[in-house]
Write a structure and sequence with these properties.
This protein has 343 residues and is an alpha/beta fold. It contains five helices and 13 strands.
């Protein structure tokens, strides 16, 4: 029997299991919207919010003895979860199955990385279908991405008006969420008074173009404040077709050292990855090296990784470095408050 056949069966089992899980959980997402647009005064229109329990509040078992507080806020923009079907439009906010998928994938496995010291705000939005990234009709794709952005713009305005109340914050996102976080940063934060309260921005899975940002806007070490971090994770030597042009002209942060230089940081610096088992932390899974505008790594090591053949680790941009990111959030928060003692 081919060794790939059991792997295919494994993927089928995982897919069926996840699909049935989301279908089961979707019973909890039955709200309706009158206009199709979000109303951010309604907690149902937030995937994560401190006034309700949601998967971003979850803590892996090995971390449950941590000291926790909520001295800052995190405004987290989730990545694309609208991936099925041929419609290249936008998500519906009252799509119960999609909301369950979002909450028990990215909100659980990504947004939770911030919950030790932060209140997590993650708005639902009419995200653009994943096919918009490859849509030949650029005007159509631009309209769909603008619909998504206008929702998140309103969410950020609402958050600032009613809930922030002068608190320091982090803005973070992954993939489409990072693209939208960049747009919010440029409109509301970059060079403005609000920038002083932004501890850092983690714009992961989306490039920080060198011709759009100054070097001093990019974090250069683990304690820099009011700056941005970004990385895209790929196996060494692999560049997907959609990144062939211009990928070298991006700022990249190494999440194992929090520097932007090109030295290889070994696996021993990886303090823990959070993979499919939310309650298991795997240490020393992968190295990291910045090379030509990407984060280039050797194949990750974890139980069963001999069955893992992918070369694009985009979906795990955050999860491969979960503990390093969790620690870095705490480091920057401590640095922020140590420099704002009199305020």
């Amino acid at each position: 029997m081919s060794p790939r056949i059991p792997l295919i069966l494994l993927f089928i089992l995982v897919f069926v299991s996840c699909s049935s899980k989301y279908a089961r959980l979707s019973k909890n997402y039955s709200f309706k919207t009158a206009s199709g647009a979000p109303d951010y005064s309604q907690l149902d229109h937030w995937a994560a919010h401190p006034w309700k329990w949601d998967p971003s509040d979850s803590v892996p078992v090995p971390l449950r003895n941590e000291i926790r507080d909520s001295v800052i806020d995190v405004f987290f923009l989730h990545p694309t979860t609208l991936t099925k079907g041929n419609n290249t439009g936008n998500a519906k906010l009252d799509d119960a199955l999609l909301n369950a998928k979002t909450d028990y994938s990215t909100i659980l496995y990504q947004a939770s990385v911030f919950n030790q010291h932060a209140r997590v705000f993650a708005p639902r939005y009419r995200q653009a279908h994943i096919k918009n990234f490859f849509e030949k009709d650029k005007a159509l794709a631009a309209r769909n991405f603008d619909t998504a952005f206008q929702d998140l713009r309103q969410a950020f305005i609402y958050y600032l008006k009613y809930w922030n109340r002068g608190r320091p914050f982090i803005i973070a996102g992954h993939s489409q969420g990072a693209l939208m976080a960049e747009k919010l940063y440029k409109e509301f934060i970059q060079g403005k008074e609000l920038e002083k309260r932004m501890i850092a921005g983690y714009f992961v899975g989306w490039p920080l173009a060198m011709d759009e940002f100054k070097k001093e806007e990019v974090c250069q070490d683990s304690l820099d404040l009011n700056c941005l971090c970004s990385w895209r994770t790929l196996k060494r030597g692999f560049i997907p077709w959609y990144m062939k042009a211009g990928h070298e002209n991006s700022y990249v942060t190494n999440p194992l050292s929090w520097t932007t230089t090109g030295e290889r940081i070994p696996r021993s610096f990886n303090k823990g990855s959070l993979l499919l088992n939310f309650n298991k932390i795997y240490k020393n899974t992968t190295e990291a090296r910045i090379y030509q505008g990407i984060l280039a790594v050797r194949k990750p090591r974890f139980p069963g990784s001999f069955l893992y053949f992918k070369r694009n680790y985009h979906v795990a941009d955050i999860n491969l470095y979960y503990m390093n990111l969790r620690e870095n959030v705490e480091q920057r928060i401590r640095k922020y408050f140590s420099t704002h003692k009199t305020e």
